[in-house]
Amino acid sequence: MRDFKWSDTEKKIARAAYDTALQKELTAIMAKFKELAVAVNSPGDMWDIEHYLQNARKDIDAKYVYRYSRLLALLSQLVLENLIKREDLQKLAQDKLEIIDSLLEKHRNYLSEDDE
Amino acid sequence: MRDFKWSDTEKKIARAAYDTALQKELTAIMAKFKELAVAVNSPGDMWDIEHYLQNARKDIDAKYVYRYSRLLALLSQLVLENLIKREDLQKLAQDKLEIIDSLLEKHRNYLSEDDE
After folding, report:
1. Closest Cα to residue B33, out of A45, A22, A112, A25?
2. Is A68 contained in some domain?
3. Any domain includes B74
4. Positive or negative: CA dihedral B90, B94, B99, B102
5. Across residues A5-14, what is the average pLDDT?
6. Which of 79-108 (B) contact A at CB < 8 A?
7. Which residue is closest to B57 within chain A, CA to CA?
8. Domain assignment of residue B60, given as a range
9. Residue numbers in B near A37 (CB within 8 A)
10. ipTM for the complex?
């Protein structure tokens, strides 16, 4: 992906979207964790939770890398996963929105091919 | 430590003591886990629990190795940690009890030196 200039406004928009999505995911992981923890009945259940937390943490760490060279791909992914809305990104410059929209479209086409 | 013969009765005694202690430790870890889990308020608290579980599991795995060559040392340790009672081992043969008692004494002397 080519090298974009990010204005201060754009950086704020991207950062807010990133933070919103991360917060949503962490909240969901915490809710799931609490649900699992209450149901723990044996040491095995407890080690399953250790495993769940370890995987969740690794997934989050791998996904939420805030790097400008990766940001358009990540923002597109977050829209696809319904963690943010496409409208949240509306004030990014046109060149970036075009990339995002083309990634969204590519992915949706790919998904609809899967359905056939 | 020299190679002992373990009669079937002795094996049963050792195994029961080992299982009792392991069960007590796991129960305590589960109780602590439940207490921590209820108090989780942030992702950081949750990753602390992951860390707690990981350490607890590694400690248990390293400690509870059921190997006859290590058993007298382990049983002595479990008595010292009040996880089993010296009386639970009373029906082991005299040669084994002597080793256990000498390990207990050595350790208690060491602890009392520490106090001075």
Report:
1. A45
2. yes
3. yes
4. positive
5. 96
6. none
7. A47
8. 8-111
9. 33-34, 37-38, 40
10. 0.86
